[in-house]
Structure formats: C-alpha cells, structure tokens
Amino acid sequence: MTSCNVTIPREVQVFQMVTAVPTFILGVLANSTLLVLFCRQRKNCSDMMVYLANIALADSTALVSLPFRMYSYSNHWPFSVSSCLVLVSTYFVNMYVSIFTTVAISVVRFVTVKYPFKARAVKSPWKALVVCVGIWVVIGSLSAMFHSVDAPEANGSNFSCFQKNSEEPLPLSFILTLDVVGYLLPFVVITYCTANVICTLSRSNSEEVKLRKNKAIHIMAANLAVFIVCFSPFHFGYLLKFLAETYWEHNCELQQFAHSFVHVANSVASTNCFLDAFSYYFLAKASWGTLREAWCGTHSRERGSIVI
C-alpha cells in the first residue's frame, strides 16, 4: 500500500487536452469516412475491407469515452458507478479489439504473400467477419476484468472514474494479462508477419513491380510504427506503476512519475483511434478513387483498390 498522495500535474493535464481534441475530431472524421465507405461498398467488399471496418468501428466506439475521460481527470465522477464501469469497459474492450484485428490483418498478409496458394483458405469477407465477431465475443467476455480489479463501491460517491480508487497496486495477474496477452503476444505476431512480408516483397527485379511493392512496404511499416508508438508506452506504464507501488511504495517521487507516465501514455494510446485510419487507408493512393466513388455514390470503370 502506498502512502504517497499522487496527482495529475498541470502540464500532464495540458498534454491530455492538447492530444484529446485533435484525436477526437480527426478520429470521428476518419473513422466515419471508412464506415461510410464500407457501407457503400458492402456488396463488393473484400476481407480487408471487413477488417478495416472492424477497426474503424472499434476506434469510433473508443472515442465515445474520450470526453468523459477528459472530464474525469480533473473532476469527481458525477454519474452512477455503473456508467463509469460501462465507459471503462468500452475503452479497454475497443482498444484490444483494434489490437487483435491488427493481428488478424498481419496474419492474412503473411499467408497471402508467403503461401499464396493457401491464401483462399483465409481470405474471404465471410471468414473475416467470423474472425471479427470472434474477437468481439472473446474480448467482450473478458471486459469484467477491466473494472473488477479496481471498481468503486456500488453505492459509492465522490470517486474518480478512469483512475485508481484503491491505494493497493493492481493485481499482478491483471498486469501480466494486459502486457503479455494484450501487447507482447500481438507485438511478436505483428512484427514477425510484417518482417517476413517485407523481406519477401523486397525480392523483386522489375521496376514497375518494385514501385507497387514499395508502397505496400511503406504502409506496413507505418502500421507497425503506429502500433509500437501508441501501445508500447501504455503497457510499459502499467507495469512501471505496479512495480513502483509494490517495491518502492515509499518513494513518492517515483510514484508521481509513474502516475504521470500512465496518464501521458493513455493519451498517446488514444491517438491510435485516428492514426489507424490514416496508416491503413489514407496512405494508399489507389484508394482515393474508391473513396470518391463511395461519397458520390458512383462507380468508375476502374475502381480504386485498398493497398495494405
């Protein structure tokens, strides 16, 4: 149990607000565009469009909690305990739905490039839909874990939502589940698949083919970079806070640093809600034609394709 009184410093609150406003605006615009595109093209969509739509849906839902999170960081929660638990679950569930959908995309890429004759076994819109539904069911069924470890009292008042309400460290089992299952395992799979696909695509002698493959390589590198930048600090922060509260409970300076780091990392992780859309879709030049057709409701003879 820590005896230190940690707070969210003013500079951290400013950083949270500076990142939250563009994240919310850009996230709503980018993800709503992708969802509109998917709805307009749903009869002719590919498996990748299903995965992209699933990420856009998860990111859009996660954005719903963002204004409430910003309010709760500087105020006591004025609503019911159940509303706090729902919003906390919404935030975590949609974050990990996005992460594991990214894993699915990486695996499909890997199979398609490394084993093209087996690609049909994993590439179809219906199979992608089954995978996405499975991800929602599994992550959603585990959602109780996200708030049960530090839930306010059922009839509690004057508590803070999206912040720890107990002086006890979060359980080690919870931290390991977040860091190993929720981050390290996806990171290994995504990195392995991406590295193998990039190495395979790099082996090309044709200049024309090289240009197309280089574009795909840049997009995959951007996807991996977004994953690392957004989610590495977040998961490291929770581990750091656990270690500080468990082994250095009387070191108030370290306690305050870990507390501030977690809140900064949470803000960085939230930027994934709009960076996903740009790294997966808007970096693909060929997709602009499809986007234009989707908004206008028209179809050209050569429809643009999403390159990922």
TrEMBL record:
Pfam families attached to this UniProt entry: 7tm_1
GO cellular component: plasma membrane
Membrane-topology descriptor: Multi-pass membrane protein
InterPro entries per the UniProt record, alphabetical: GPCR_Rhodpsn, GPCR_Rhodpsn_7TM
Domain of life (superkingdom): Eukaryota
Membrane-crossing residue ranges in chain numbering: 20-39, 51-71, 91-112, 124-146, 172-195, 216-240
Record keywords, A-Z: Cell membrane, G-protein coupled receptor, Glycoprotein, Membrane, Receptor, Transducer, Transmembrane, Transmembrane helix
Full protein name: Lysophosphatidic acid receptor 4-like
